[in-house]
Amino acid sequence: MSAPVLDLLGVGFGPANLALALAVDEHRAATGGAGLRTLFVERQPGFGWHRGMLLPGATMQVSFLKDLVTQRNPTSGASFVAYLHERGRLADFVNARTFYPTRLEFHDYLQWAADRVRCPVRYGTEVTALHPVRRGGRVELLEAELSDGTGVLTRSVSLATGLRPRVPRSLRTGARVRHTATFLPDLAALEPVLPPEPVFVVLGGGQSAAEVVQHLHARYPRARVHSVFRSFGFSPADDSPFANRVFDPGAVDEFHTAPGGVREELLRRHAGTNYSVVDLDLIQDLYRTEYAEKVAGTARLHLHRASELLQVREDGDGLDVAVAERTSGLVRRLRADLLVCATGYEHPDPTALLGGPQGLGAAVHRDDDGRVLVTRDHRLVTDPDVTCAVHLLGGTEHTHGLSSSLLSNAAPRAGEVLESVLRHARAPRAVPA
Ligand code: FDA
């Protein structure tokens, strides 16, 4: 522990902390290179953004203008437009007349941005715990335990550890029961043993489910694909302009100061902008596919509406799956090769790394529902003797609104967190625009 104390330790290096690292770099450049001591730690061996779902043709759900920097600093050299220019595709992209690049292209942009970050990033390493360092009755520093056996001291932390795949409790994952988070590698691993006419079951009614259904149907022309979901049909994502304002940077101000009941109501009313919904174009594609098969009398795409999985049994060479139609109680039994759970994600407890009663976790303030309290500049609210700062980048829907775990506000949030970090640091305090 002889290394100098950090001003900022970033836990996780997905888009949220990548945006923060770019803001730190720009701050360093603006202040003549002096300034913050930082380290970002990422458990993946290299940069990767939801690699398991980089399906060919799948597009972004946010405008490319909501990249890592533009909404904080439109003149930044790390924008999506700068990336296009450097790749020699700016004119081609303009001619494509879209706000929504493919996820594959956006991943390449994120990778490009990660490669140009000057802040040190330690890949292949996990932060396993954050311990408070008590001195003179105050907690000014945190000690981070890393999986490589080292430790670091820091004045502030940005926790951007993302979401955790959710699988219904009634299901046990195995070689043939997989979550979408690892869809592409799982499919590649299974491919050698798939029969010529494989049967796939996809559970879920949201965007990932619809994308996986479409992918399996197109990729395996002799496959049967069973799409099982609880609603009557895929519902379209509300990306209309007025509703979309819920993701604006300014909306975070309004949301954060609103009464708790109003916040809950707004989250409920606008859930259809993000949760359990599907891009309308994709819905229409799937509908056309299903209809064309009805006309041809060769159904390969089977939509099980208002349905749920009753039972799944995995044996050596496949799955026995029972699907119950909730309206009629009718049960259909299928023999399948793979069940893909497109059942979403959950927020892990943001304080898990902070330890229980002995750790900082006990000093974190919570609301009546047990959710952590978070200041507008993304810091956990703690007892007053805790003067180090723990910032949450994600998992703050209840305090900062629907954009919390999305890309929409990654850029402006990075600027806000940087300002907060600077307040806790011993460094010059200029912040880039
Ligand atoms: P993200 O999950 O990307 O990164 C967290 C990182 O932390 C991971 O790399 C993880 O390995 C690392 N980590 C976790 N714990 C650690 C520890 N203890 N130590 C070290 N490292 C640790 N949103 C949007 O706005 N528009 C979109 O189009 C999409 N599209 C989309 C597609 C798919 C398939 C998914 C699953 C999600 C989206 N999203 C999205 C939402 C998504 O949450 C968002 O795009 C970003 O990934 C959020 O970035 P974060 O950095 O917060 O988390």
How would you portray this structure in words?
With 433 residues, the chain is of the alpha/beta class. The protein has two domains: 8-163 and 347-426, FAD/NAD(P)-binding domain, CATH 3.50.50; 167-236 and 275-344, 3-Layer(bba) Sandwich (FAD/NAD(P)-binding domain). It has helices at 15-30, 80-87, 90-96, 103-116, 183-190, 207-219, 241-244, 249-257, 260-269, 280-296, 397-400, 410-424; strands at residues 8-11, 38-41, 121-122, 127-135, 138-146, 151-154, 156-159, 164-165, 177-179, 199-203, 224-228, 301-304, 307-315, 318-325, 331-336, 338-341, 345-346, 389-392. The strands form five sheets. The protein has a five-stranded parallel β-sheet, with helices on one face. Strands 9-16-10-11-12 form a five-stranded parallel β-sheet. The chain is globular, with a radius of gyration of 23 Å. The two termini are 35 Å apart. The model is unreliable at 427-433 (pLDDT under 50). Bound molecules: dihydroflavine-adenine dinucleotide (FDA). Residues 11-12, 14-17, 41-44, 49-50, 53, 60-62, 126-127, 160-163, 208, 393-394, 405-408 line the site of dihydroflavine-adenine dinucleotide.
What characteristics describe this protein?
FAD/NAD(P)-binding domain, five-stranded parallel sheet, 12 helices, globular, disordered C terminus, binds dihydroflavine-adenine dinucleotide
CATH superfamily of the largest domain: FAD/NAD(P)-binding domain
Q: Return the string of H and E elements.
A: EHEHHHEEEEEEEHEHEHHHHEEEEEEEHH
Widest beta sheet: strand line-up: 3-2-1-7-18
Total domain count? 2
Number of helices: 12
The CA-CA distance between the termini, in Å, is: 35 Å
What would you call the shape? globular
Helix-and-strand structural type? alpha/beta
Name of the level-1 CATH class of the largest domain: Alpha Beta
The CATH architecture assignment of the largest domain turns out to be: 3-Layer(bba) Sandwich
Low-confidence stretches: 427-433
- As a whole number of angstroms, the C-alpha radius of gyration is 23 Å
Report the sheet with the most strands, covering strand number, pairing sense and barrel closure.
Answer: 5 strands, parallel
Strand content bin: 15-25%
- Approximately how much helix is present in the residues? 25-40%
CATH topology of the largest domain: FAD/NAD(P)-binding domain
Regarding quaternary structure, what we see is: single chain
Distinct ligands = dihydroflavine-adenine dinucleotide
Global mean pLDDT: 95
What's the total number of strands?
Answer: 18
